[in-house]
Amino acid sequence: TDLKQAMRERDTARRDTVRLLLTTIKNSEIEKGDELDESETLALLQKQAKQRRDSMSAYEAGDRPDLVESERAELDIIESYLPQQMNEEEILAVVDAQIAQTGASGMKDMGRVMGPLMSELRGKADGATVQRLVRERLS
């Protein structure tokens, strides 16, 4: 539906990004041999969003603002299909609860905290942000 809407509105950026996402999903379904369930599709969208963020960082380092802007536009479109991300305060509350539950006391316990935490926050928070916040709390 979004593809048709973008074509009607002549929104080439949205059209091309939606086509890319549909192709990526279709290729994954062919590779799997079955349709993707919601969590697999979500993981695929998150992977695409992470690729855009990484590309933006590389383009910024290479002083290519034109490419950063195109990646930003694609990222915004991809993020519109992802669930709302948690802010840092919400993540910190979950991190503190997990640290208290596991009884973690230092960096050596990071693995015990991160495993269950990422299972709980998958799709709701960026893994790098969660890792940074856990490091801050445990150090």
Walk me through this protein's architecture.
- With 139 residues, the protein is an all-alpha fold.
- It contains 7 helices and no strands.
- It has helices spanning 2-8, 12-32, 38-61, 65-79, 88-102, 110-121, 127-138.
- The longest helix has 24 residues, at 38-61.
- The chain is globular and about 55 Å long.
- The protein starts with a helix and ends with a helix.
- The relative contact order is 0.10.
- The model has no long low-confidence stretch (mean pLDDT 91).
Summed up:
This protein is mainly alpha-helical and 139 residues long.
Question: Cα-atom Rg, whole angstroms?
Answer: 18 Å
Helix content: over 70%
Secondary-structure class: mainly alpha
Q: Counting H and I runs of at least 4 residues, what is the number of helices?
A: 7
Give the assembly state of these chains.
single chain
Beta-strand proportion: under 5%
- Give helix and strand order, one letter per element, not per position: HHHHHHH
Which helices and strands occur, and which strands form pairs?
Blueprint: H1 2-8, H2 12-32, H3 38-61, H4 65-79, H5 88-102, H6 110-121, H7 127-138
What key attributes describe this structure?
7 helices, 139 residues, 76% helix
